[in-house]
Design goal:
Blueprint (H helix, E strand, L loop, with lengths): L1 E10 L8 E7 L6 H11 L4 E5 L8 E6 L4 E2 L3 H14 L6 E6 L2 E8 L2 E5 L4 E5 L16 E5 L3 E6 L3 H5 L5 H10 L4 E10 L2 E9 L4 E4 L3 H13 L6 E6 L7 E7 L4 E5 L1 E11 L1
Parallel strand pairs: 2-3, 4-6, 11-12, 13-15
Antiparallel strand pairs: 1-2, 1-18, 3-4, 4-5, 6-7, 7-8, 8-17, 9-10, 10-11, 12-13, 13-14, 15-16, 16-17
């Protein structure tokens, strides 16, 4: 029986039990893909990651990311949470980190306690409006974009924060529609109308077993790409997500013509050993 180091990290918060949790298994090289997927289904979190030795000399470590149902090439909050775990465990040191994952070798940096990751390129394509049976109404005239950053989010703007908070999608219809478009789910946003935070965001992925993601890193990257596409993106801003689930996370974004960076703080809530057969 092998014993592996295990942490559960809350991301996009400094307070335990807020933000979005990710399970991180350190030294996962002894596990095969089937075992990793089995553990991810057991933790029953939106994502579980495994920190393993890099295959590229350009990287400090390699990260494998699993939902309860499948492996992902990239995801935002697992990347930030795993970097926090690797720093805490002494696997990496300093303010610059190179993480290898299915999307390639990504650059991470630590700035005043916020861990930023430079996003892979986001591929955008226009879509027809959301089917009425899904139960998500965009703002009048708002465009719907298919945003592919590894996970694929169908991304659009809602009229205001109150309308966003009131959304109650039909999860069966949403799962059917997103599966038809080979997408992870839907991410929608609205201006917050409050100081210190530019936007509110919600992400729904029932086809992946996640009715609503508490605070979605890749979804927020897709929102930033949507805003940049329509020349509405601030150079830096904060977004809130997860209030409807009692999480209230804070996401930090940096946006330029060359890059989108996703940032967040993180806190360790669980630390121990994972025993495997």
């Amino acid at each position: 029986m092998d014993t592996l180091r295990f942490k559960q990290i809350d991301v996009f918060t400094q307070k335990p039990f807020l933000g979005n949790p990710v399970a991180v298994v350190l030294g996962g090289d002894k596990l095969d893909t089937h075992e990793m997927q089995q553990i991810a289904a057991w933790t029953n979190l939106s994502e579980t990651t495994f920190v393993v030795a890099p295959s590229s000399t350009a990287a400090d470590y390699r990260l494998r990311i699993f939902t309860p149902k499948q492996e992902l090439p990239f995801a935002g909050h697992p990347t930030i949470g795993s970097a926090h775990a690797a720093l805490e465990a002494g696997i990496v040191k300093g303010r610059k980190i190179k993480q290898e994952c299915g999307a390639g070798v990504l650059e991470l940096s630590v700035d005043d306690g916020v861990i930023y990751v430079r996003s892979p390129a986001v591929k955008l394509a226009p879509l027809e409006s959301i089917p009425s049976k899904v139960g998500i109404r965009l703002a009048p005239g708002a465009a719907l974009l298919r945003a592919d950053v590894g996970p694929v989010w169908l991304t659009g703007e809602v009229s205001d924060a109150a309308a966003l908070a009131a959304l109650k999608p039909d999860m069966s219809a949403l799962a059917e529609w997103s599966t038809l478009l080979n997408a992870s789910g839907v991410t929608v946003f609205a201006k917050s109308g409050e100081a210190g935070c530019a936007f509110h965001v919600r992400s729904f992925a029932p086809a992946h077993g996640i009715p609503e993601d508490p605070v979605c890193g890749s979804g927020n990257i897709c929102v930033a790409a949507w805003l940049r596409h329509f020349k509405r993106a601030p150079a830096s801003y904060a977004a809130r997500q997860g209030m409807q689930l009692g999480r209230d996370g804070r996401v930090h974004m940096r946006v330029s013509a060359e890059a989108i960076e996703l940032g967040g703080r993180a806190v360790t809530c669980v630390e121990g050993a994972l025993k495997t057969a």
